[in-house]
Predict the 3D structure of the following.
Amino acid sequence: MMAEDDGDMRVLRRKKLQELKAKGLNPYEKYKFVRTHNTTQIKKDFASATSERSKEEVAVAGRIMGLRIHGKAGFADVQDREGRVQVYFKLDEVGQERFDLFKSLDKGDHVGIRGQVFRTKMGEVTVAINDFEILSKALEPFPDQFHGLQDVETRYRKRYLDMIMNQDIREKFIKRSKMVAFMRDWLNERGFLEIETPILQPLYGGALARPFKTHHNALDMDLYLRIAPELYHKRCIVGDLEKVYEIGHNFRNEDIDAQHYPEYTSLELYEAYADYNDIMDLTEHVICDAAMHIVGTDKIPYGQKVLDFSRPWPRITMHDAIQKYTGLDIAALRTVEEARSAATKLGVREADSCPTMGELMAEVFDQKTQPHLINPTFVIDHPIEVSPLSKKKRGNPCLVERFELFINGWEFANAFSELNDPEEQEQRFREQERHKEEGDEEAHPIDMDYVHALEYGLPPTGGLGIGIDRLAMIFTNSQSIKEVLLFPHMKPEAV
């Protein structure tokens, strides 16, 4: 809800702009303003302020977010990234012209303030204005302070306004940025090298997903937006970089819901001479350390739950997890027909379309077991049919050394002991190609250049992908992935 009619406010604000320019006060001509403090620093550095004004003059800048006139004096709230601080202006101190100019400011205008700090009778740390500059004029009306900006679609379409009006939303993105920076520093300190690999790829790979397709005019060739950087990372391990990571966007042409988005951010890493057990340890430590750094506790509130991140996290095989939560012993079933029948009795959707025992096992897990995994849990040893890039499980060639991390019933990480046998990798690719020919749009294509890279020798390697967006959701108690994406895609507005 707007404080006044939008059209009238726009006209009035543009009129004020022209009046300022007529006085030689163009609010857009300033190139900079040197700040000595942000709003938080003022409150911290002057926590012991009294009614006596400080000898030190401070300079603070931000938006006017509230203006209260009391005769020949007034107060305003100035907002920056950190929060708000109150400022005070008085006719006797700034003069009639400057007093009237400050009174004419609108909500959203940027100002630079210079003045002394004191504490009001109400106990609020305040900056008494000696002088000020108008740094930018806001021409659009703002929502009123009481109702704020609440409409979800408007918030997503106008994220800039959402962050201005809602400090908690602004804080979410600050936390997300700090989380990514922490994880980057954590890996750098442990000898990982940050790399950058192609987003436009001649052949997508590294995951089972449907890609976005585009065309390169200069080369006259089709390219794909990457669905994962995995195969390029393992080429880097072949090239003896040994420990690499990348934080970047992946693109999967999929549905949008509260946990899924077609453009998302992942942390992907690979470590030579490590297996999936080592990577489980790494995953547990980096996420727990990030939680303590960002949230300050390993007991994290999320919605109506409290998620327990305390170490060690449980590790359970996919087979045992299915049996625990459904009572079904997959290993006791001898044929695919038996497995389909058992899955159908459990209420598994589309069980009849799963051609192999392994794909049925994965489908039963996804539909009937995964929702029960609330606290962080590693599910290990997955079927080979759905894991074309993983090394076989030691002692059981029907499974692979793969784990997924689940929290709140969602997948957060996927990792393998990486398959490094080029002949077996080519065979797995060709099996996936057969699935593609049978209509599976998410089957992995054959990448013979990657197979050729393996022929130069990939050492035993552990790999990992972590979903950054979902982790940010948990750390900021956000119920939709769009809440932690600065600019989520929206359908065009109706004209």
